[in-house]
Amino acid sequence: MPEIAFKGLFRVMAMRLVTPGNWYIGFRSQVSGRLFAVLDDPTGTGELRVGGNATFEVQTPEVGAIETFSGADLLVFQAATARLEEPVEEPVRPA
Q1: Which residues contact 90 (CB under 8 A, 6 or more apart)?
Q2: pLDDT by residue for the chain (95 residues), tens digit each?
Q3: pTM
Q4: How many CB atoms lie within 10 A of CB 56?
Q5: 67 within 8 A of 58, measured Cβ to Cβ
Q6: N or C terminus of the chain: which is more exposed, having fewer CB within 10 Å?
Q7: Residues above pLDDT 90, as percent of the chain
Q8: Would you list the DSSP string of the chain?
Q9: Hey, where are the domains in the chain?
Q10: Phi and psi at residue 73, to the nearest 5°
Q11: What sign has the CA pseudo-torsion 38, 44, 49, 52?
Q12: Contact 31, 8 (CB under 8 A)
């Protein structure tokens, strides 16, 4: 299984739209509990391990607040709808 290990500090904005059925790398909001994407899954299959010792400062799509995450918080997930307000809850693959 391919693996991506992120290192360093990343300041990113969450994706505003996702394509239903596509796979993404993202986080679960610490405030709302909802998933949001920051990158496309380069495999397009969800068969990807993600992690590393990176720190991510992410502007969330809901209110634009900055949330801080570690590489261990990364998730690979498949979008169920095009709206980030209703991302898929399953399957979620932890890093």
Answers
A1: none
A2: 899 999 999 999 999 889 999 999 999 998 888 889 999 999 999 999 999 999 999 998 877 889 999 999 999 999 986 554 444 444 455 55
A3: 0.81
A4: 21
A5: yes
A6: N
A7: 60
A8: --EEEE-SEEEEE--SB--TT-EEEEEE-TTT--EEEEEE-TTSSS--EEEES-EEEEE-TTT--EEEEEGGG-EEEE-SSSBTTS---S-EEE-
A9: 3-88
A10: -85, -10
A11: negative
A12: no
List pLDDT tens digits, range 2-15: 999 999 999 999 99
Q: How many residues would you count in the chain?
A: 95
Dig out the tokens for 2 from the structure. Answer: 């391919």
